[in-house]
Design a protein that fits this description.
Elements lengths: L13 E8 L6 E11 L4 E4 H4 L4 E2 L9 E5 L20 E4 L6 E3 H5 L5 E2 L9 E3 L20 E3 L6 E3 H4 L4 E4 L2 E10 L20 E5 L4 E3 L1 H5 L5 E2 L9 E3 L3 E5 L6 E4 L2 E3 L4 E3 L9 E2 L8 E4 L7 E2 L6 E2 L5 E3 L7 E3 H4 L23 E5 L2 E4 L7 E4 L23 E4 L5 E3 H4 L4 E4 L2 E8 L6 E2 L6 E2 L3 E3 L4 E3 H4 L4 E3 L6 E11 L6 E8 L5 E3 H4 L4 E2 L8 E4 L22 E4 L4 E4 H5 L10 E3 L6 E6 L19 E7 L2 E5 L2 H14 L1
Antiparallel strand pairs: 1-2, 2-3, 4-5, 5-6, 6-7, 8-9, 9-10, 10-11, 12-13, 13-14, 14-15, 16-17, 17-20, 18-19, 20-21, 22-23, 23-26, 24-25, 26-27, 28-29, 29-30, 30-31, 31-32, 33-34, 34-37, 35-36, 37-38, 39-40, 40-41, 41-42, 43-44, 44-45, 45-46, 47-48, 48-49, 49-50
Length: about 650
């Protein structure tokens, strides 16, 4: 079975050949054979933890049965296990009739009151029930175990796991010599990492001085299996090579430096972390499913995500419908790209639901306005910019549009054809198109207020203007193709602000943030009679001053009129409320605060209630909050207005 749903976790779980650290019992126990992983939460579960019963009887609480409790979101009520005192996290058992709670680790292995013959100490130890997360005198680390024990004769304290660690072991990955339990100060080891898992060694570890072989405590107690038969990784049985060795992983093509699994008959090597790579996935950069391939056909393959070369001889993901589309294995499963679902065995999603139903050749019933029919107008009617589209909230000038036959509802033809569901590079999950109605939202991409249509999930929304951007764009300010990238913070060449989500050129340092990418190339403002053009300051020298606010424009992009020789800040021309439908009562996400956006003019330029200025922005908001009526000029002032109203009432 590829994918299962269990009551112990809210997301689908997938089989994995081993578990290093369990998200159920929180045991750092090395490698335990067979279990499940959640790609969404990036956690693993022991098989027995994931398959725990919903109700059990346990000797720690014989009075009543215990019920499984799954923490769906942040668990604000702080509780600790009654046996070990550990904080309770993802799943635990509780008694609904009393306040008894117990974690998964204590369900499986309750801590004994005494350890009569510990391996690491000559005296017996007793359990300090009310002292946990203390410092262990053996390993000198605080968080390596859940239970703390003390020797009454020596006054030394031991974590439960440390008390049972032998001082010398024979490890299956290094059987020719015994490994001794040492500290970093006792021996100069090779590279400070575990030979098996590559993790940084703690203060205590096991070591062979002859072979310079080091393993951490977790891999010493529960080493990874020497052989694995896991068809998801390889058709044949693969074997662990526990040594320092340079190799290229056949699954992802990246270099490794230690302990791969290999198949000698196929000359196949794979990272331990690549063994359970998903086989069929959806990503937000491509409309079709991608399948994992052992290798691609010979040829030149650019990665559809990072745009670098994909070595066709190594594993990659490719599309069976688009013959030239492929991605690196690691690029495809990036957190900002993959939706964390393995789709093998899962049927394809149904055909896309159309946004409207055709009534006749030029008449439709749109999902956002089902009460009336919309009529298509393609005669290039010049509307003068006073009529706005309900979806993008931009003026309709001479574009084709649909208009309601009974009310003033209007959509651009392109906006009426927007798909109901889509994947987008800004988010890893599918997004659903919803109508704006009477509510305001902030677009995640450009940060603009909008009351138009939005592509959204429960916690994410982008407006339809930003949704129209593809992963690769051509912007007239730059001669090269710009690619969307989510990486280290870079400064936008248009506004000078730093951003992590950007469009940049692979060949030079040209960077645009998401807000500046969607700046309109031309726009209008009542301050000037002519259309204003966006100026990119290419080969333009001299100092410019904004004719609206009379402040310096510095080195940023700006709007100008070549006929009148005037320049304006982009924010002064566009304002903060240009994507809110004028003349309509809109509910903001500020609790109880309603606004009506009003267009300004030379004859109507009200003073802002907060900053007391008369800024010549194209729109202002009239705020309604109980008995308050006030004009607001910007988003910053709107926030202050909310706090003013809140303090008064």
């Amino acid at each position: 079975m590829i994918r299962i749903n269990l009551p112990t976790h809210k997301h689908p779980l997938y089989p994995t050949p081993w578990v290093r650290s369990c998200g159920g019992c929180y045991r750092e126990s090395g490698c335990t054979k067979d279990g499940y992983r959640c790609y969404e939460c990036k956690i693993f579960f022991h098989k027995e933890c994931a398959e725990s019963s919903l109700e059990i009887n346990h000797p720690s609480h014989p009075e009543h049965p215990l019920h499984l409790f799954i923490v769906e979101e942040y668990f604000s009520e702080s509780k600790n296990c009654k046996l070990c005192g550990e904080s309770l996290l993802h799943i635990f058992y509780h008694c609904p009739l009393c306040e008894f709670v117990i974690d998964m680790a204590c369900i499986k292995n309750p801590p004994p009151d005494f350890i009569e013959h510990p391996k690491a100490h000559e005296h017996s130890l007793f359990h300090l029930k009310n002292h946990y997360h203390g410092t262990c005198d053996f390993c000198e680390e605080i968080y390596c175990s859940r239970y703390l024990y003390k020797c009454s004769q020596c006054q030394l304290k031991f974590h439960f796991e440390c008390s049972n660690l032998p001082l010398e072991i024979i490890h299956p990955c290094h059987s020719k010599h015994p490994l001794k339990f040492l500290t970093r100060e006792e021996h100069q080891f090779s590279d400070g990492k575990c030979r098996i898992c590559g993790n940084k060694l703690g203060r205590r570890f096991y070591h062979c001085s002859i072979c310079k072989f080091n393993v951490d405590v977790a891999c010493a107690k529960n080493p990874p299996p020497l052989t694995i038969l896991f068809p998801k990784a390889h058709d044949h049985q693969i074997s662990l090579i526990p040594r320092i060795i340079s190799f290229n992983c056949d699954a992802c093509g990246l270099a490794g430096d230690r302990s791969p699994y290999s198949c000698q008959q196929c000359d196949f090597m794979i990272h331990q972390s690549c063994i359970d790579l998903p086989e069929i996935i959806n990503i937000n950069r491509h409309e079709h499913r991608l399948s994992r391939r052992l290798h691609l056909n010979p040829g030149s393959w650019p990665c559809g995500i990072c745009h670098k070369k994909v070595d066709w001889s190594y594993g990659a993901y490719s599309c069976s419908i688009c013959p030239n589309y492929a991605t690196h294995s690691k690029c495809a499963i990036r957190d900002d790209v993959w939706d964390k679902l393995e789709l093998k065995g899962i049927p394809e999603e149904p055909q896309e639901i159309k946004p409207f139903k055709v009534i006749n050749g030029n008449m439709i019933r749109h999902f956002s306005h089902e009460e009336h029919y919309l009529q298509l107008n393609e005669e290039k009617i010049i509307c003068g910019g006073n009529i706005r589209c309900e979806a993008c909230v931009l003026p309709i000038y001479s574009q084709a549009f649909y208009s309601c036959m009974q009310c003033d509802f209007i959509l651009h033809k392109t906006c009426a054809n927007l798909p109901r569901k889509r994947r987008h590079m800004y988010y890893d999950k599918p997004l659903t198109l919803t109508s704006g109605g009477m509510t305001q939202f902030n677009c995640w991409a450009c940060s603009n207020y909008s009351s138009g249509f939005r592509y959204t999930t429960e916690s994410f929304s982008i407006d339809v203007i930003c949704s129209a951007l593809s992963e690769a764009i051509f912007h007239e300010s730059h001669g090269c193709t710009l690619y969307y990238n989510y990486a280290n913070e870079k400064k936008c060449i248009a506004c000078g602000n730093g951003s992590y989500s950007i469009f940049n050129c692979d060949d030079c340092k040209f960077v645009l943030d998401l807000k500046c990418v969607v700046l309109p190339k031309t726009t209008k403002h009542w301050y000037d009679d002519h259309p204003l053009s966006l100026c990119y300051r290419v080969n333009i020298k001299g100092e410019y001053w904004c004719d609206i606010c009379e402040e310096s424009i510095e080195k940023n992009w700006f709007y100008n009129c070549d006929i009148c020789c005037v320049a304006f800040h982009t924010k002064c021309v566009l304002g903060d409320f240009s994507l809110l439908m004028p003349g309509r009562r809109i509910i903001t996400y500020y609790d109880g605060l309603g606004i009506e956006v009003m267009q300004t003019s030379p004859r109507f330029l009200p003073r802002c209630y907060i900053c007391h200025s008369r800024r010549a922005v194209p729109f202002v908001s009239k705020v309604f909050y109980r008995k308050e009526n006030m004009f607001i000029c910007s988003s910053e002032c709107l926030l202050f207005a909310y706090y003013v109203c809140k303090d008064r009432y």
